[in-house]
Amino acid sequence: MENIQLNVPLLRRKVPNLTAAARTVGLRPATVSNLCTGKIPIGRAEVKTLVALSTLAECSLDDLIIRGEKMEMVETGIKTLDVFAPLTKGGTVGLVARFGMGQLVVLAEMFHRLKKRDFTTALLLPSGDHPEINDVLGEVDIQVQTVDEAYEKLVVLGKKKDIAFAADRSHVLTGDIHQLQERLSDVGVTMTTFLVDLKGEAVDEDLPYGPLETLWQFDADLAARHKFPAVNPIYSTSSILEGGHLEKNHLAVQQRALKLLRRYRELRSLVAVSGMDKLPAAEVETYHRGERLEAYLTQPFYVAEEFTGKKGEYIPQRETIEDLRKILDGEVDNEEVEKLNFIGTL
């Protein structure tokens, strides 16, 4: 089953309103979302689920389930993203967050880092008054008002340079983004698309953006405790994690880290109510390693340097994975948790 994946671009093109459509054939939108992002591998999907999806898309199972080409990961140098929800070049990533969780800071940081990799950054301006978008504009090469204007400019640039494109969810709901992606695909232009939700309503929807290759789910608890970027490693995911696209060592460390973070979150709830004294002795080590891992996953951003006073850090993926292994194996058990907040590498 290696390298077998769901044909997400086809689903995006054929069934733009996938949430409603999934329910009409008895599918849980969350299940469909997890299949699209790879959180549920195709090999574990029920046959009836795949048949229902092929019916919705009016395609054969051979078209729906493809032996995909090797996906290309774009290394961002952001620890949480590169390990737990890698960015797929040419894919679509949805940022799911409420106000104050930092989704626009992450978008601005992504644009800043991608420009260093010679991407051209473009933004489809949202309708209405959204002054918060000004925080992103400094990292945007091209601002457009309409999908037609975006097509005219990107169809020329896309044959010369890589494109990173962002838009608000309001343009997804109208079908504009799917239309733009299809038109550009027809002329051989591929862009990496970032979708944000300026109204903060996406967290209440099962498939707020339709089919995605990557999902970055922001977390209120992390944001409240100033653990930025407040992207939840447990609920964020990417289709690039499935199908043999990453090294086995990456996946092994990632799975160990997820297991620790899940247990740590359970223990935090217990400690919050009853205190450390009620923590089982066998779990104390797990709790403290979880603390260190969570602290290590914070990171200084380039676009926030003037506010934080900390220089932005780019951490190669291989170094992040090695640092996670050290934390998981207890090699930094004597390190103070506070010293791991907003550092680069160990």
Which tags fit this structure?
346 residues; alpha/beta; 434 Repressor (Amino-terminal Domain); Rossmann fold; 3 domains
Q: Which structural class best describes the helix and strand composition?
A: alpha/beta
Gyration radius (Cα, Å) is: 20 Å
User: Distance between termini?
Assistant: 37 Å
CATH architecture call of the largest domain: 3-Layer(aba) Sandwich
How are the strands ordered across the major sheet?
7-6-8-9-5-10-11
Helix content: 40-55%
Strand content: 5-15%
Protein name: ATP synthase A/B type C-terminal domain-containing protein
Organism: Evansella alkalicola
Pfam families: ATP-synt_VA_C (PF22919)
Domain ATP synthase A/B type C-terminal: 244-312
Break the fold down into its secondary structure elements and pairings.
Layout: E1 4-6, H1 8-14, H2 18-24, H3 29-37, H4 47-57, H5 61-64, E2 65-67, E3 73-74, H6 79-84, E4 87-88, E5 92-96, H7 103-116, E6 119-124, H8 134-137, E7 142-144, H9 147-157, E8 162-168, H10 169-173, H11 176-186, E9 191-196, E10 214-217, H12 220-224, E11 237-238, H13 248-274, H14 281-296, H15 305-308, H16 317-328
Parallel strand pairs: 5-9, 5-10, 6-7, 6-8, 8-9
Antiparallel strand pairs: 1-2, 3-4, 10-11
Main location: membrane
Subcellular location: Membrane
Pfam families: ATP-synt_VA_C
